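Our preliminary data section would be incomplete without showing what the modeling component actually yields. Below, a chain of 271 amino acids is followed by its predicted structure, encoded as tokens that our downstream tools consume directly.
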Amino acid sequence: MKKKLLILVFFFVLITVGLFYYTYTVAFNSPENCRACHFITPFYKKWQTSTHNKVPCLKCHEYTPLKAIAGQFLYLAGAYNPRPLTNVPDKNCLQSGCHDKRLVESRVLFTKRGITFDHKKHFGEMKRNIKLHCRSCHSDIVQGEHMKVSVNVCFLCHFKGMPHDQAVTGCPSCHSAPHQPISVMGKTFSHDDALKAGYACSQCHVEITKGDGVTPKDKCYFCHVDRVEKYNNVNLIHEKHVAEKQIDCLWCHPRIEHGRIKMAEQILFLK
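Predicted structure:
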């Protein structure tokens, strides 16, 4: 009797260990299986067409078997939140074989817009009293992409709280004026001549933004029930939501449009 019991215990342990090993190494690490519990089909499809489509979810996202088990209990208790909200620590982005050279080779040229971006300045320094992380800019909300930079995040940071004809870092911090003469109102206009004469960008570009990017208080209720007492404590809100939880900026803030929103009615043409 004791021998049979030992054999049963042995096979039970063997099967349990085998199932755990298979679940942990195969099923748990398969991006396809993540969709069984989490409502992430749009994110999964974006991942499939992205440059990260050979990288499994858990290479970036922090999610352990213990969290998965806890999620089952929450599901049975009716308290499970299926919306995906997991952290991607900066160390995972900067791990060997991934983007470990990013802060060394920190300057990147965005050829479509002629903008040179310096990762080191944005990653290593506080910007507008906010500690940024990789996902502050490399958001996962861009349709058809995964972890792509959205210019809307750039616009929010550079223009929020500023007059509609100014940027917090000035226009030349992102792009220079065209060096070749352009045609305006049927006449030739030279930005180089205008700048040499001391004219400011805002004298012609009277409005370069649309929208203020201010988070409406009602937006807080989407995640919190009757918790807006800290709404005006901006530093605390950003520390909890940006630095700790890595909430995408545009999850809370409305977009700010940037471009030639409104030009001066009369342009000075220099001889």
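The first strand starts at residue 107 and ends at 110. The chain is about 35% helix and 10% strand. Preliminary results of this kind motivate Aim 1 of the renewal.
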